[in-house]
Design goal:
Layout (H helix, E strand, L loop, with lengths): L2 H23 L4 E9 L3 H23 L4 H13 L20 E7 L4 E8 L5 H11 L4 E3 H10 L13 H10 L6 H4 L7 E6 L5 E7 L20 E4 L3 E7 L1 H7 L1 H10 L4 H16 L3 E6 L5 E5 L3 E8 L2 E5 L6 E4 L5
Parallel strand pairs: 3-4
Antiparallel strand pairs: 1-5, 1-11, 2-3, 2-6, 5-6, 7-8, 8-9, 9-10, 11-12, 12-13
Helix pairs in contact: 2-3, 3-4, 8-10, 9-10
């Protein structure tokens, strides 16, 4: 090997090291969370925003204490699964038979570690089960009874499926059974899919998404949430995305991965998110929303739907909004 080639190799290595150091120094940990895209009834929007801001704070406390991005997003989504204001965990919408079928996914940007579950009906926190799939199996996604068998082997407690059904979910299910139900109105007023993305102090990114799916869906329907590249994607080399909206449309364009492709081409988190959502709308007529981060801590909450409840926490400040253009702020230490 020539002196010139050795010297060139050392310069390249030094450049990568300096770039890495710069990224750590110039990066601010952040967690961004969404509570679903679509139409949120006025009487439910306040509870949704309060729940999102509280969850974002909890995730940020983990990051501020040096915790990992994966710990942060799982805790955020776990809290939202326990909040009946959302379409995940307790509060999930019902399928055509009036039963709960839940999906969830996690992805770690360090080594593209992934875990997902679909069609689970008696687990309080599917997001934690998805993380176990990632950490304890050689698989990516487990479904239905197979997921339940794995949960039992891991000591995850089962809950009665009825305990996950709220009066609101039952009301929406009954109303949508009517033969003259408007197909557009059928999906209005539902609580939203929940998801989060985060960047930790080491520049690692992660995503987590959880949902009860589509109102009055066919039994056995699997949506975008547990599908890598659709419901979410995380890669330390690019960033992380969690999606919400019309699942079938999201799957057709693999929305999460599409947005990261645009970021790989040099687009900002905002521009890449908008490009992905615009393509989905023009190509397959789908509406939705996303939360997006890059490894430097830049973040975005973008949507093509009427509304998307979202919150973000960074540099001891909570940001939140519901309609396009909104970005309200409060100190992380302000009372909820």
């Amino acid at each position: 090997m020539s002196f010139t080639s050795v010297r060139a190799g050392r310069i390249e290595a030094a450049s990568k090291y300096c770039s890495s150091v710069f990224r750590v120094i110039d990066m601010f940990p952040v967690v961004v969370v969404h509570g679903g895209a679509g139409h949120i009834p006025k009487e439910r929007s306040e509870k949704s925003m309060s729940g999102l801001c509280s969850a974002a704070r909890a995730g940020y406390v983990i990051l501020r204490g040096g915790g990992s991005s994966m710990d942060a997003v799982v805790e955020v989504v776990r809290q939202l699964e326990n909040n009946p204001s959302f379409n995940a965990g307790c509060g999930s919408v019902l399928n055509a038979k009036g039963e709960v079928e839940m999906d969830a996914i996690v992805m770690d940007g360090k080594a593209l570690g992934s875990g997902a579950v679909s069609g689970v009906c008696n687990i309080a926190n599917p997001i934690q089960l998805a993380r176990l799939v990632m950490n304890k199996t050689s698989h990516v996604c487990l479904t239905s009874e197979g997921a339940n068998q794995f949960a039992r082997s891991m000591g995850v407690p089962e809950v009665p499926p009825e305990s996950l059904i709220t009066e609101y979910s039952r009301m929406r299910w009954t109303k949508n059974l009517a033969v003259d139900a408007d197909p557009v109105e059928c999906q209005m007023g539902k609580m939203g899919t929940v998801g989060a993305v985060a960047v930790d102090s080491e520049g690692n990114v992660a995503c987590a998404t959880s949902t009860g799916g589509m109102l009055n869906k066919m039994e056995g329907r699997v949506g975008d949430t547990p599908c890598i590249g659709s419901g979410g994607y995380a890669d330390n080399l690019v960033g992380a995305v969690s999606t919400t909206g019309h699942g079938e449309a999201i799957m057709k364009v693999t929305l999460a991965r599409l947005i990261l492709f645009h970021m790989e081409q040099g687009q900002s988190v905002e521009a890449a998110s908008d490009l992905g959502l615009a393509y989905m709308k023009s190509r397959v007529g789908g509406l939705g929303g996303v939360v997006t981060v890059d490894p430097r801590g830049h973040w975005a909450a973008r949507f093509s739907s009427h509304q998307m409840a979202w919150a973000a926490a960074q540099k001891d400040t909570v940001h939140y909004g519901l309609y396009s253009g909104e970005n309200f702020t409060q100190s992380i230490d302000d009372p909820l």
